Amino acid sequence: MLISELAVLRWLHILAMVYWLGGEWGVFQTSRHVVNRALSMEERRRHMETAYRIDILARTGIILLLPLGLHMGYMWGAQPWGQPWLTVMWVVFAGWLTLCWAAFAWRETDRGVRLTVWDERIRYVVIPVLFLSAVSSLLGYGPFNAAVQWFSWKVLIYSLLLVIGLYLRFVMREWTQLFRVLAEGPNPDAETTLEKSLRLGKRLAYLYWAGIASAAFLGSTKFV
Q1: Which helix (H) or strand (E) holds 1?
Q2: What sign has the CA pseudo-torsion 59, 29, 34, 171?
Q3: Which of 12, 95, 111, 179 could bridge across to 106 with cysteines, CB 3.0–4.6 Å?
Q4: Which residues touch 66 (CB under 8 Å, ≥6 apart)?
């Protein structure tokens, strides 16, 4: 029995979604120990390293979901761009994913911080493009097929989730910088900043998970 291209893409899409949702949960749980003042700095650094290693899988899933979704969208007739546009799209996203992993590889260095900033800047372009495209399509102006509304709704939710994810990227980059400060000795201001960012991150995390579940539900049921 031959396995269809669409079936493989759907399988990869599910894996990317699982790594995204599961990875964010892992980072959420680990981050509580990162800001725990009762732990030694060495122990907190170990938890920080664990958070980064879990988070890179979530970041990979986030990036891969978009090209996988757009590729399947063409096969479903939800979006009009086929070959050679799909080839160009995959090359571009491979570059973005490489940048993301390079930032992870150099995460404890100034180079890693700079690469992370560039990763964030890409999202400044991707988020508004996806958001406006989804809203325009839902209003009947394209570029997505107005008859396949679930696709536009899913893209819209995904763009909003990227906004939350972008803020959480800011948080982790800030943690890297604050840990450099704490390595020089006790610093109450830095500790307070860490704790505040975690409190806000917790509130956003619940919204994040609800949004991911909603996007998955739309993709699975296609009820609109």
Answers
A1: none
A2: positive
A3: 111
A4: 93, 126, 130, 158
Other C-beta atoms lying within 10 Å of the C-beta of residue 218? 21
Please state, in angstroms and rounded to a whole number, the distance separating the CA atoms of residues 115 and 136.
32
Give Cβ neighbours of residue 10 (< 8 Å, ≥ 6 apart).
72
- Where along the chain do its domains lie? 5-221
Judge whether 104 and 60 are in contact, CB under 8 Å.
Answer: no
Is the pTM for the entire model greater than 0.85? yes
Which tokens go with 68? 């996988």
* Burial (0-12, 13-18, 19+ Cβ within 10 Å), 126: middle
Q: Rounded to whole angstroms, how far apart are CA atoms 164 and 62?
A: 12
Burial of 69 (0-12, 13-18, 19+ CB in 10 A): buried
Residue in this structure with the two tokens 């996007």, named with its chain if needed: 215
pLDDT tens for 104-134 read 999 878 898 899 889 999 999 999 999 999 9
Whole-angstrom distance, CA of residue 34 vs CA of residue 178: 11
The C-alpha atoms of residue 150 and residue 11 are separated, in whole angstroms, by 19
